[in-house]
Each structure stands twice: as structure tokens, then as C-alpha cells.
Amino acid sequence: MAYVIPAPRTVSVPVKGAADGDEFPVRRIYCVGRNYVEHAIEMGHTGREAPFFFLKPADAVLPAREGEVAAMRYPSLTKSLHHEVELVVAIGTGGRCIAAERAMDHVWGYAVGLDMTRRDLQNDMKKQGRPWCIGKGFDQAAPIGAIVPAAQCRVGPETAIELKVNGSVRQASTIGKLIWSIPEIIEQLSAAWDLAPGDLIFTGTPEGVAAVVPGDTLEARVDGVGSLAVKIVE
Ligand code: MN
After folding, report:
1. What is the mean predicted confidence (pLDDT) over 104-108?
2. pTM higher than 0.70 for the full model?
């Protein structure tokens, strides 16, 4: 069997320390909305609500290898490109209706990611009651650092998450401030969709989201997991 047009490539993300440069293949990118109280408040919400989800296409991934600076093109149509630093959970074993108590068995690893957002377009869509896709699901909207196998890192409540722009701290929090914990996210997500190996979950961003412009360099870090650097280019 052959394909009638060129087949899309499999999107993948580098794995820290992998022998032979093996990579993690990406199936879907799920994102959790408003999962830190202070960020929910800065977006005009109460800070406490049931978790909700949106998706980015897999090929929105922009791999940002440790020690390198990945180039992200300033996207079209927007005048307000926002950064959202997030802990990313990589699913290694699929399932549906996964109980929170069993959820961590499905986690293959972790990474730091950026949920880049065309905020002006997202806000326009929100006002009109339309889908967010144009604000969240554009090309290169998901820069992500190397994935670290879960056995090789410890992610706990005190784990720091941070984003700097041009060397100044813009976002700083801890994973313990997630409204919905990682097991709870997996439980709720897998009630709505069948999870499968290769799924990534962006777990939400803390407060401090703001706009970046061409020439800015973003450095994101989750302690014990890794870091990434992205430069915005014209
Ligand atoms: Mn986000």
C-alpha cells in the first residue's frame, strides 16, 4: 500500500539522555485551561471551576533542545502573542476512564512547554462564543523541551516552574499550586477521550502571562525536569 499524497511526518520530541537519540512520538496535545488560581483571576475568572480542555495539533510542536535556542516565527494575524509556561505530562500507556489512583502508571515522562497564545484572537473568539483554535492551535504554538522519563525526575508540590523573558522573571510558581493535580487531570481527561501513547498534556500556566515581540528570548524551566529557550523572530 502506498499513499496518494506525501504522508505527514510523525512529530516527535527529543528525550533527555536517550540512547541513539531516540525521540518521543506525539499523537495529540491536550491542554488544561485556567489551572492555577492566580492565572484564572488575572483572566477575569474566579479561580475555582471544573477542569476544561482544548487541543493543539500535534504538528504545532516546536522542539527546543536543551542548550540550543529554538527560533519561533512571530505568528500571523496577531498583535498580542502571549507566553504561558507549563509543565507537560507525556503519556506512555493509554486508557479510558483512568482512576486518579492509577493515573501515574500512565505517565511516561515530563517536560517544560510553552502554550503560546494569540491572545487578541482568543479573546475575540471568546466574546463571540466561538472556538479558540485560531488563538491556540497555530503553527509552532507548542514549543517543548526534552522529555525526561518519569523515573529520572521528581515532580512534587514544591517543584518550581519559571519563565524569563530577556532575563527578567515573568512567571514563577510551584506545581503544588495546580488547582487540578496531574492524577486528577488524567482522570478527567480520560473520561472524555481515550488516552493513547504519545499524548502530551499541557497542565496549565501560573500567573504573569504577557506579550512578547520579535527579538525577545524566552527561557522556561521546571526544576528537576529541564529547561528550554526560544527566540521570537520576524
Ligand atoms: Mn495554557
Report:
1. 98
2. yes
